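Reader question, answered in our methods column.
A reader sent in the components of a multi-part assembly and asked whether the whole thing could be modeled at once rather than chain by chain. We filled in our standard form and ran it. Here is what they sent:
COMPLEX SIZE: two components
ENTRIES:
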Amino acid sequence: MEIFFQQIINGFVQGSVYALVALGYTMVYGILGLINFAHGEVVMIGAMIALTALQALLAAAFAPVLAVLLSLMVAVAVCMALGYSIERIAYRPLRNAPRLAPLITAIGVSIVLQNLAMMIWGREYHSFNLPFASTSHHLGGAVMNDVQIVIVIVALVIMAGLMWLVHHTRTGRAMRAVAENPAAATLMGVDINRVISVTFMIGSALAAIAGFMVSANYGIVHYYMGFMLGLKAFTAAVLGGIGNLRGAMLGGVLLGLIESLGAGYIGDLSGGFLGSHYQDVFAFFVLIAVLVFRPSGLLGEKLAERA
Amino acid sequence: MLINRFALLAALVVAVAGCGKSETASTAASDELVIRIGAAGPLTGPQAHIGKDNEYGTRMAIDDANAKGVMIGGKKARFELLSEDDQTDPKTATIVAQKLVDAKVNGVIGHLNSGTSIPASSIYFKNGIPQISPSATAVKFTAQGYNTAFRVMTNDAQQGKALGEFAVKVLGLKSIAVIDDRTAYGQGLADEFVKSAEANGAQIIAREYTTDKAVDFTAVLTSIKGKQPELLFFGGMDPQGVPMVKQLRSLGMKTQFMMGDGGYTPKLIDLAGAAVEGTYASLPGVPLDVMPSGRDFSQRYEARFKQPIQLYAPYCYDAVNVMIAAMQKAGSAEPAKYLPEIGKVELDGVTAKIMFDEKGDIKGGAVTMYQARQGKWQVVQTMGGAPAAAH
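And here is the structure of the entire assembly that came back:
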């Protein structure tokens, strides 16, 4: 039973990260109908920037807590600027081009960012250690450390904040208007370019936070780390219904849980016939099953029809 | 969309690989013999740091030979390096292999992984190009009947046997969980380890798997935790070893942790911090410090590349020197002429005394066990193999 409880915790931690990254995919898709494949690399850049800033701040004898918060803010700021630039350079000139064109530039940006990071931070893995110890807590036989607790709480707070932003602020209303009908939104006096830029910047800020949390959790960063994470988060977004914010959150957490339970039990349940390396197969099988019955994802709605 | 992305990525990757670096072929003087050595390994992706380390090791051997002035068949030889990126991907490895063949290399040092060395080896064999892998350990690599395939590293059977004996006989651990990364290397080593451990009386109570791209192992480790093994053996490389050992400890597990040569890197200790304390890893050959020329090699390497040796650079260095020795003996750098000489080479390398058996495997095959103690890999003991150096 405690093993099961531990697997649920594992799944929630992993799923919270997927959800945060998935939000970035889903927001952009909801508004532009574009899959921003460079988003995974933004997560990686966020982690790298945070690492560099953290080291510099600690070297300058800042208090550990202050250094962590400041480095997170630096990472968020840099990623917001990066997200803005990506949209401005790679997507905006192609907004009226055929659908395939921005997809190609998205992959191009992804490769450029990855190689840029390789040139700046090198090919090797870097350790990402927080300047304070992360103590483990025992909850009825299961273990959860401080970093993991913070990950789940921060993810929940951010998601709540984002829902509030989208549904209760002027910017949020503009975002929803652009998502629904860009032409009509323009006629109503909404500055589409500004809304899209803001969307990219918010998504990138979430990516930076996710990057920081992933790195703190695993303790390592690498220029390649964004690829797989981005792919998984994209899957989570599709699972939940791409374009839908609640869907991204649900999809992220579900994917985390499916992977964790899948990896934990698939071997024993199938009597060793299927091993734990089938966890991805298992996750994608669930995705296919969901899409067969609900082609627009679990919570997909009218926005998904734009695909 | 997913499929689109992969297809596009693959196309782009091929395009990028196509315009990869190749050294400009300079106009050689008529009395100068230009010899092209191909090197192949991952220069991008999760194992890029180890691939680059291999390239550095190969480069150092080539530069040393050029500085020394090697005579082959009465002509002064000038060696050139052609380094290619196989991305640890079996498909890309065959593309890269064909590219090296087309570039008319005289021999190839590579690839890094078993999963890439094996598919590439058939291309080198068909074209008669000698291939010496510094680090492919899968038994299959030299068991395909290719007379062009050699390695300067013990194979999984030799290493897995030593690891299993060490775990059960020396450490006295009887209940063992095994994870491998499903690559030719990880799987092969884990299988041989299991065989050896069971033969020595241990029980394998869990057999789990992951991939060479994964970073989160909490689910698998949690499931292993429920079975309470004394030892966890991981067949894989350090990018997975680091988060695995950290997560093992953060789940509050006291299980001993052991890896093969893929774990014996300075990075494993740097990155895993306190969690790595007590971890075991093996490395074929005898410790670099013990070999007469080993210490000199590691000092020169660090001075030149501004980083410590990651893993297999010394093996690449030896592999190049084996190739050169065979060329000198044959008096020719033509693959067909010097290939028969490789099997007869006896070389005091920086990793061991190198001699091949009839399959192209290294003879003797000493394996040294290390343990991470106080932030350093410390020698525990050398298992098997001929005593390569007096110590």
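What stands out: The CA atoms of residues 86 and 209 of chain A lie 18 Å apart. The longest strand of chain A covers residues 136-139.
Send us your own complexes using the same form.
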